[in-house]
């Protein structure tokens, strides 16, 4: 703690510090000399390609991948083309950009994933320089070719190549260039001598940085900030210009006193930075140039690489890994010499308290008198998050806890969260893990992404412990990690399928949110079909098993699982797949063994494939259904001969099925059709397709009584039905004379009340009265009432001595006009009631 400020250097109103993160674990004979180096941001891995220009088959370059602490993750001989640039994607995949424009992608462990090309033109003119960029759209690549043309891809996962306009007067590679992200669009900023151009999709626009030193005759280096908001230009006069990337605002210009072209430049600034700066590196010399025009020089013992970060710059060399950053305000307030800030006083109070000195009380009183104890606790908690040393973190958090004891109604949440975050950060900063995240980077990255990175490095136990410690929901945390572990496990080809399946089942158990089908799919992709089937047995959801079973040609099992799921859409999917994959006979035989699938397929065929339905019935010798099929098909035919032919086929099938009733009815339908055709030819009336009922009714309406009589006798229509049909037809025609003849032809099987009712319905009470006398006694009251004969209704009701009928007549009488009749009915009703 006494030497916290030993490595601090002032820059304007702020301080900068260089903190050692790791003593590198790699053994590099010549350091980073003659190496192509790429380090991923957010404490990501480091890739080295030693002597990349080697082309001899006997002495090829060596590609090595390390963690940020120098622990080897992968190493292999590079056997492909000449590499011009290395870079990392946002997902920690390694991009190797070759001279011919081909880009090869490897994972952290050196396993090849895929490749793509930047286009034929790039391949023909060769790559001179390349840059890997990270934007809101993903990982992009920018290339300048031997023809001095730029090609840009903003997202390699959705590759769309953009060939940018030419730069006036540019020959060969430009002295310096950078990629900007402005207005949701990636652009290239190019310097050619003293001129600067912005290239977008369509135009090349010249721009002039405001306030650039007149001594400069050319711009030799440039860099863009981590957030793409700020730009730094280094000129041949040794000046570094700093401003906004839209080149409309100048922040500062500093004379570095060095005219040599830098090897590398990087912005060093944090969000809400008080003194942002640009770090400029030459051979064995580093300079921090602030906006305030002050500088801090550093000597470098070895060849180094600068890695821009959200809140600083990492410096990697052959032996050490350091972090250069502006000292956070909270740390400065607490540790600055002679600081009287509340946090500094609280830290001193803790030290005195631990010495059992009364000065602790004096410090506390001084803070409390200013009402700044809460601010002091906040400063200590915040400063702890910015420190790398665990002991310093603990001291600051103890000071915060000490101050909190003297506060009431102070939320402990910030301190609890910071303790939790620091425990996670210290775990991943460990040398064996090698992810040197700062607290600000951790908050920006989110826990989910950190877990993904640990999983990608196959650090499953640590990932699970962090998920449990942070109480991450299981499906987002532990279950997700276990799924990745299982997908990795199935790739271990040296283990037997049975052992791997058992190990995965035991480890995953009943973990929430894990789909065994996804793991089985991974096993199948690795060529382990039997393992995939074994893993699918653990999948509780049948619907999840089916797609993969179809993919691995286990269609019978897929059909069984689909039926178990109860999802008819899924069953239809499998049946459709089987239909396309199998020959017709095997397909039908398969369905016969699955009644549910067969039934659903029949339903489908009824609406979509009638011919297939017929084949299904033939395959099963289902004569009854075949007969039904022919009957339904007959109604689709317009020609009589075709319809009768289908009906005859139906008769044959019904006979085979020993369904005599269906065969007889179908034969009668055929006779009726022939009769209708004959009638149509003789009378010109279109009756084809009418039912027997409608045919008779129509004939009666047309006055063709003999033909109707013929149908009545030939088809043995019941008497009651025929009388009703004829009665209705004659009444509708108002053929009262024919109706009277019909009523007298023989005794009516339906009685004569219907005659009365149809006449009344047609507003003809005169005709209705003709049939009242023929109505049976029990219906006479109703008949008389229908024709409005109250006297007759009263006589009939009194004669029958029926109290209900007497009441019905009374309800129709008017006391004013039918007084005598009412009295008579009332007497009869009273007499009927006594009995």
From TrEMBL:
Ranges in coiled-coil conformation: 346-373
GO molecular function, one term: actin binding
Vps16 N-terminal domain location: 5-413
Gene Ontology CC: CORVET complex; HOPS complex; late endosome membrane; lysosomal membrane
Vps16 C-terminal domain boundaries: 514-829
Keywords, comma-separated and alphabetical: Coiled coil, Endosome, Lysosome, Membrane, Protein transport, Transport
Domain of life: Eukaryota
GO BP terms, alphabetized: endosomal transport; intracellular protein transport; vacuole fusion, non-autophagic
Pfam families: Vps16_C, Vps16_N
Membrane topology label: Peripheral membrane protein
Subcellular localization(s) per the UniProt record: Late endosome membrane; Lysosome membrane
Membrane-traversing stretches: none
InterPro entries cross-referenced by the UniProt entry: VPS16, Vps16_C, Vps16_C_sf, Vps16_N
Described function: Plays a role in vesicle-mediated protein trafficking to lysosomal compartments including the endocytic membrane transport and autophagic pathways. Believed to act as a core component of the putative HOPS and CORVET endosomal tethering complexes.
Protein family according to the UniProt entry: Belongs to the VPS16 family.
SUBUNIT field: Core component of at least two putative endosomal tethering complexes, the homotypic fusion and vacuole protein sorting (HOPS) complex and the class C core vacuole/endosome tethering (CORVET) complex. Their common core is composed of the class C Vps proteins VPS11, VPS16, VPS18 and VPS33A, which in HOPS further associates with VPS39 and VPS41 and in CORVET with VPS8 and TGFBRAP1. Interacts with RAB5C. Interacts with STX17, MON1B. Associates with adapter protein complex 3 (AP-3) and clathrin:AP-3 complexes.
Protein name as annotated: Vacuolar protein sorting-associated protein 16 homolog
Species whose genome carries this gene: Electrophorus voltai
